[in-house]
Amino acid sequence: MSENYVPSSKFGKWFNDRLPLLTLSKHLTDYPTPKNLNYWWTFGGILTFCLISQIITGIVLGMHYVAHADMAFSSIEHIMRDVNYGWLIRYIHSNGASMFFLAVYIHIFRSLFYGSYRSPREIIWILGMLIYLLMMATAFMGYVLPWGQMSFWGATVITNLFSAIPLVGESIVTWLWGGYSVDNPTLTRFFSLHYLFPFLILGLVVLHIWALHVPGNNNPIGIDIKKPSKDTVPFHPYITIKDLFALLIFMTIFAGFIFFAPNILGHSDNYIEANPLVTPKHIVPEWYLLPFYAILRAVPDKLGGVVLMLGSIFILMALPWLDSSKVRSTVFRPLYKKFFWLLVIDVLALGYVGAMPAEGLYLLIARVGTIYYFAHFLIVLPVLSRIEKTEPVPLSISEPVLGGMLKPEMARSDRKDV
Amino acid sequence: MDKPEKKGNRRDFIFTASYTVGAIGVGATIWPLIDQMNPDSSVKALASTEVDISQIEPGKSVTVLWRGKPVFIKRRTQEEIAEAQSVSLDDLPHPEKDQDRVKNPEWLVMLGICTHLGCVPLSDKGEYNGWFCPCHGSHYDTSGRIRKGPAPTNMEIPKYAFVDDNTIKIG
Amino acid sequence: MCNLRARFLILFLIFFSITFNSVRSEEKVKLLKIDWSFKGVTGKFDRASLQRGYQVYTEVCASCHSMNLVSYRNLGEKGGPEFSVEQVKAIAANFEVEDGPNSDGEMFTRPGRPSDKFVSPYPNVQAATAANGGAYPPDMSVLVKARKGGSDYIYSVLMGYEDPPAGFELEDGVYYNKYMDGQKIKMSNPLSEGIVTYADGTQTTQAQMAKDVTTFLTWTAEPHLETRHKMGVKVIIFLTIFTLLVYLSMRRIWSRIDSEK
């Protein structure tokens, strides 16, 4: 219906006829959104804020940072000490990366719980996974730029993994490095790509939101709804204000880190300049990469570790086809719900052991955790989705909101819309 | 019925207050992003330079770098001073008295940048015993004033002061 | 729904606290804790302590430890020791700085200026390492941030020299320190009572000097700490007010549908 929108001003109409930005704006404003969305749905807006914040602070930092092995570390100290508000912009950017990942993990787990990845939203989900991959690459390269001990050694360990590829592995690593070890050529190309990738992410985010607007949002009870209807509200002002409220709470936590504990999520070794002759006692990535690090080190074989680490992300891409339950939202899947929480605990445990030395009990937990992770997606989910007895699903959103009694006969197991 | 009206006023207040506070927030956020492009404190620390002039003989000059630009410091001979002071203002494309361009007539401190298009003029050259800019042929006199050629104004005098008899602080 | 949210939140909090603690403290020995004036939401540096700490750094540490990211002018800036303009000029002029090349192509030395970085005791890392028995005395500009435990760790190490327990093997040139990784350090105890005479007359016990120099080193690592804290308080207050206003706006907007059921 916003396709028939006619702007009120003459200039507006003239412009809109040539580039329908006003029609787009009307569509976004009127976009019918389920009225029962809870706060787990605010993280999309929060993520958009994080991306823009990182891009803006990143571009500003790029005006002062020097991407050369001899000057990188001191250029960042120059930013922290001399550049007006440099310390603030740097801390926003470094803590912003952590906040970005915190938000993306909540966003992903929301999708897992409510079945937002299921038909007809598979492409949104895959685009999301691609965004996540680019985020990890961007964060990894960004962490190298200060050229501290963790920057250098983290880069060395992770790039060395590619040597596990049979036949061409060594050549690929040399190609990545631009030399025979991580050094200046590696740094300069990482700077270039670190600057580029967020704009690729931005493009994918546009596609991600576009793909979302085709079927519309999922909702906590996972049923399909008519749009617009009594079950929906226009995006503006109902959802915009709610997203803003959630964003402000998020920003308050963010500010807490920036102003009062700006280095708590980082590693003190990265305030030591990179030294190729001295390896830190424990090489640890930033917290948001720890679960993958745990999986990587759980496998005794180098190539196996790399394969499983990548596999842990690619298996998520296959998720829409692994889950064949008749019910979309875990709210109505009481048995699967238990396994969902088990997965959450599993990922947290993997994150914990990822920060520990890969030996003894830690290694055992990492292995058990890795096995469960893959078992959850390859065995538990497909099996349960076939055999689980699900709870009855309401027919509409307004019904549970009104607090009325669920009429069992209203819930049918032959429903085609869930 | 005044109920909807009262409600209306309260509703507007909350919204107005939110917009206002939001605007303040946006402004406060934008300022650091703009200010970071202003000269940082390491650049500002080099905003002034002190130069030791005790080794400069009469008739000689030194060129120092100040804020990335050349500054000519010339210790003028009595003839050069006399020449500079005796020029009639009508002969000058950019009329300026020599006395207005120097604090101590023996010392000429000026930006060594041709006011035409920015080249660095050569000293002790040109038809007026001052400087000559080889780029487009501007001639400057012993006071650094343009006499002939395309330059529109005299070479600029920066802010400077004598810290003591042997030291000049520029900037 | 509330239960779900709460569980999620708790799990994430647990995850974070575990990660911090696991990544942060692997020391089995508990560090000495000081009630630093700069800790906490409204923490500030003790100006006098900073000036004393600078004196300790210059007279005791600077012969081996460089601080090449700090400039003399920083000593006069707000939020630091706040020496006066003349004092800063005088301090800088005490040091010979290499400059050049001059117009003859030669390097030369001249007295320091406020804009210069702190002069290093050695020309490069290799010279520093060779002159100190193969152990490089780390640059101190960000040392407090470069060690787990931060200020508490630096203070503890300075106070941690003791006689080794019976049977503990110490090579030549290696000393026992309770708080160092492996309990070994290649620097002898740098602080002894009275090694410095404070300009303001404060008693120079080892603990006092350790506290002052650690305060100074915390400032060199975080020169904008005070501004950061002040701004942080203002930002959090602002966000709280704004969040409340937006919350009320949200309730007002959503009341439109709750009323048209």
Order the strands across the largest sheet of chain A as they lie in space. Answer: 1-2
Per DSSP E runs of 2 or more residues, the count of β-strands of chain B stands at 10
In the CATH hierarchy, the third-tier topology of the largest domain in chain A is known as Cytochrome Bc1 Complex, Chain C
Unreliably modeled segments of chain B: none
Strand order of the largest sheet of chain B: 5-6-7-8
Please identify the structural class of chain B as seen in this structure.
Answer: alpha+beta
Structural class of chain A: mainly alpha
Outline of chain A: globular
Oligomer: heterotrimer
Overview of this structure, please?
The complex is a heterotrimer of chains A (418), B (171) and C (261). Chain A folds into 2 domains: 36-283, Cytochrome Bc1 Complex, Chain C (Up-down Bundle), CATH 1.20.810; 287-397 and 413-418, Helix Hairpins, CATH 1.10.287. Chain A is built from 16 helices and 2 strands. Chain A has helices at residues 10-18, 21-30, 43-62, 72-81, 86-114, 122-144, 149-160, 169-177, 184-213, 235-260, 290-298, 302-317, 319-322, 334-354, 360-387, 398-401; strands at residues 32-34, 232-234. In chain A, strands 1-2 form a two-stranded antiparallel ribbon. Chain A is globular and about 65 Å long. The model of chain B has no long low-confidence stretch (mean pLDDT 91). Chain B is built from 4 helices and 10 strands. By secondary structure, chain B is α+β, with helices and mostly antiparallel strands. Chain B is elongated. Chain B has helices at 3-35, 41-45, 78-86, 98-101; strands spanning 49-52, 61-66, 69-75, 107-111, 122-123, 131-133, 138-140, 146-148, 160-164, 167-170. In chain C, strand 1 (96-99) and strand 2 (108-111) form a beta hairpin. Chain C has 261 residues and is mainly α. The longest helix of chain C has 34 residues, at 225-258. The interface between A and C is large, with 55 and 50 residues.
